[in-house]
Write a structure and sequence with these properties.
With 492 residues, the chain is α+β, with helices and mostly antiparallel strands. 46% of the residues lie in helices and 10% in strands.
Length: 492
């Protein structure tokens, strides 16, 4: 089994890298350089130690090194300010995200305090006003590498942009010293390689890419954890396929983003697409089963997709709609909920379409099915999915006959059998009384079946396990095709 980050270690982080892996971020005005970093919610200003010279700066949080190095230019060392403050949840949200627009929980207007971390800000005044700094740290203090890991990463990135031959060595040093940004950068470089992208300093190496993704994941980067989840789920990068390991990394991704169980924590707010895709892929793994996790777990898939659908993930809505339509992973089918979810998913993503069970039905026909379901539920019954299939077989020219009478009582199998028997006797009697003439000899035709009987026969002749398989395949968008149809086939 793969080694995943320790849950207690993730929960007790003092300095917390942002989603890109940066230990700190910096900006500047005409008069100041400002450094900001995420720290544990319990950190206060007294926990932040600053040593400033005119040409160097060191910042520690509870004794842990945050920033250290020789400054790009001189500063006023006696006027350094330190501030530690909370940040509202809304400040973490991406205002351009579709999830933010669709889900008020992730709104940029959310003023609730962020319980996951505080922000420490160090403001350093420039000695020379309007002096633009390309980098805050230009090197180490006592030696070239006597600096913090993230500053080394920034230096290595700057050298890479200039085509400097020392880029790779410095990037490795930054990563070895703990820069998550450097780990992610090396993983990306090795994943692509200079064979595909000339200008990169390394050749393609899946093993090296996997190594640095593991290092970044164990350091608490949610995206690296997700990448490792998909790697183990698909059995790529020379790894044996293991859903067990994949689900371990799925859980680690949530914990790294301050989530718990299926709650995404900070990741749900500032990385909504990653959070939703993580839940979607987790549901696919649970639905397929095998590869170390035993039998399929449709109930687990329903739980994951329910949260993802609530967050606005279209494919999860679609899959969950299929499950509600058929009762997979649920106590009973819920046609109304299924149609609602499928409609919403199709509305959000144009590549999705109505599943075979509902294809060709117009909005009027779908509303009729919802109305039938409501009437049956009012009587204490559930809408059997077999009725949906029969109704689908009755469609003509892309829609059901809008004059179809409402069903007030469920038709039992015995009633269906008796109805077929009466229709056959009637047809046989009509066939016997058919006459022929000498001038126009005709051959007696087979008994004519009613439209409802034809619909039932067509429905009976369809392999609905295959239909379910095709339906689920449409929604599998992402890394790996995990065969959602297996349980559906066994249930149908």
């Amino acid at each position: 089994m793969t080694t995943v980050p320790d849950e207690a270690a993730l929960a007790s982080r003092t300095i917390i890298a942002d989603p890109s892996g940066a230990a700190y971020n910096w900006t500047q005005t005409d008069s100041h350089i400002l450094f900001s970093a995420r720290v544990a919610p319990s950190v206060v200003e007294a926990d932040v130690g600053v040593e400033c010279r005119v040409d160097a700066l060191t910042v520690r949080v509870r004794g842990l090194l945050l920033l250290r190095g020789r400054l790009y230019a001189t500063v006023n060392k006696d006027s350094v300010d330190v501030l530690v403050r909370p940040i509202a949840l809304g400040a973490l949200a991406d205002a351009d995200s579709d999830s933010v627009k669709d889900n008020s929980v992730n709104s940029v207007k959310d003023k609730r305090p962020n319980p996951f971390f505080n922000i420490v800000i160090v403001r350093v005044p420039k000695s020379t006003l309007k002096n633009h700094w390309p980098l805050p740290i230009q090197g180490g203090i006592e030696s070239n590498t006597d600096t913090d890991p993230h500053s080394l990463y920034l230096l290595a990135s700057s050298l890479h942009n200039l085509g400097d031959a020392g880029t790779l060595k410095l990037m490795h040093t930054a990563a070895e010293n703990g820069s998550i940004s450097a780990m992610l950068k090396l993983a990306a470089w090795y994943e692509i390689g200079k064979e595909e992208m000339p200008g990169l300093p390394v050749s393609k190496s899946e093993s090296s890419a996997l190594l640095w993704h593991k290092r970044a994941g164990n350091a608490g980067n949610p995206e690296a954890c997700y990448i490792l989840m998909t790697t183990y789920a698909s059995g790529s990068h020379s790894n044996p396929k293991s859903f067990l390991d994949a689900l371990q990394w799925s859980r680690a991704a949530l914990q790294a983003g301050f989530g718990e169980d299926l709650d995404g924590g900070a990741m749900a707010v500032e990385q909504p697409r990653l959070y939703q895709t993580l839940l979607f892929q987790t549901g696919l793994l649970l639905m397929e089963g095998g590869s170390g996790i035993g039998e399929p777990k449709p109930e687990g898939a329903v739980a994951s997709w329910t949260v993802a659908a609530r967050e606005g993930h279209a494919q999860s809505m679609w899959n969950l709609g299929i499950f509600h339509l058929n009762g997979f992973g649920l106590e009973e089918p819920n046609v109304t909920k299924g149609i609602e979810l499928i409609r919403e998913g199709v509305k959000k993503v144009k590549e999705l379409s109505m599943p075979p069970q509902l294809s060709g039905l117009n909005e009027i026909a779908l509303d009729a099915l919802v109305e039938m379901d409501a009437e049956l539920r009012a009587q204490g019954n559930s809408f059997d999915v077999e009725k949906v299939k029969a109704l689908a077989a009755l469609k003509k020219n892309g829609q059901l006959n809008t004059s179809t009478p409402k069903v007030t009582e469920p038709i039992t199998p015995t009633q269906k059998k008796n109805l077929r028997r009466r229709e056959k006797k009637k047809s046989a009697k009509e066939a016997v009384t058919t006459t022929t003439t000498a001038s126009t000899s005709t051959v007696p035709t087979a008994a004519t079946t009613t439209s409802s009987e034809t619909g039932e026969q067509e429905a009976a002749g369809m392999d609905w396990g295959v239909v379910a398989k095709k339906s689920f395949a449409v929604a599998i968008i992402g890394v790996g095709v995990f065969g959602l149809w297996r349980v559906a086939k066994g249930t149908a």
